[in-house]
Amino acid sequence: xxxxxxxxxxxxxxDSSTRTMRVAFLNGRVYDYYDVxxxxxxxxxxxxxxxxxGFAVRRHRYRRVVAA
Length: 68
Description:
Layout: E1 2-3, E2 9-15, E3 20-25, E4 30-33, H1 38-44, H2 49-58, E5 62-64
Antiparallel strand pairs: 1-2, 2-3, 3-4, 4-5
């Protein structure tokens, strides 16, 4: 997971073998987004990613990760 500068997102991670991007929000919720390209993940590492990319990310299938 890579920490990002954002008012919504705390950190972002990416598994290139499954094309799964994990997004941890400041409110404590964590989501996995599926079939995400490397380029979108790299853009999420830039400051304030959710303002620019939230709509594009939410177009992917996703699920909320439940903490163990």
